[in-house]
Write a structure and sequence with these properties.
mainly alpha, Nitrile Hydratase, Chain A, two-stranded parallel ribbon, two-stranded parallel sheet, 11 helices, 4 strands, disordered N terminus
Amino acid sequence: MNHHHGDHDHVHHGSELSPVEARVRALESLLTEKGYLDPAALDALVELYETKVGPHLGARVVARAWVDPAFRTRLLTEATPAIAELGIGGRGGEHIVVVENTPEMHNLVVCTLCSCYPWPVLGLPPVWYKAPPYRARAVIDPRGVLAEFGVTLPETTRITVWDSTAETRYMVLPLRPAGTDGFSEDALAALVTRDSMIGTGLPKALPVEPAEMPV
């Protein structure tokens, strides 16, 4: 079984910096003062991953795989070039592996050593993904972690945990929601959540139509 990191119950409250944040801030100031770091370039990089690169790109990949069987095959065989067909790629996406959920198998992505994450398709990692509790518990109790995220799977569904590294980043191809036959790619992409591509969530379900009352 592959494994990796984070915990959704870990939230930093208040305005004070954590010890890690304080060290990062001090290091940033020192590098800027010595001329090794350009604040404008850093701001541009942060803006890129906060506003332009994000899970909406991964959702496009998933939607295309749901409607195009040939693309789905390429995605599951050689994900990086398949994703590049949609004009998506970049730092942190040099080698992406896509694993497919089925009724019999559910995949969960983690990074047990740090916070390796497929940035080009998912954007910046959520705080809980980087937190030690998720990184440890996803490996030893994946079913319990999923339950805390509100995902309850049948006991017959196996769970495989994939451990991302600096060389290989994983992304989940979730199951297509029932009742979406005939949906456009844009409509399907709107159902794909970031967590469903990590494995800690599922795509959005279609609203249930109320049964007609007998006359």
